[in-house]
Amino acid sequence: MLRKIRELIRDLEKAGFINRGGKGNHRNFVHPKVMKPVTVFGNLGDDAFSYQEKSVRQAIEGSKP
User: Fold this and answer.
1) Interior CA angle at 32 toward 46 and 26, to 5°?
2) pTM score above 0.85
3) Confidence of residue 64 (pLDDT cuts 50, 70, 90)
4) Full 3-state SS string of 2-44
């Protein structure tokens, strides 16, 4: 079962990422230890694509010490 966009955002915020804003339904999350911002797009109730889940998972792993 695919996860929702709101779940990806919750995971990013829990890991210490900050929403830098974006245009439309795009949100850019930054973290001091991660060089590249993570962009999550879609409405909160939409199903996340597999590549969005993968990029969020990699960013969270990269933010850990």
Assistant:
1) 25
2) yes
3) confident
4) CCEHHHHHHHHHHCCCEEEECCCCEEEEEECCEEEEEEEECCC
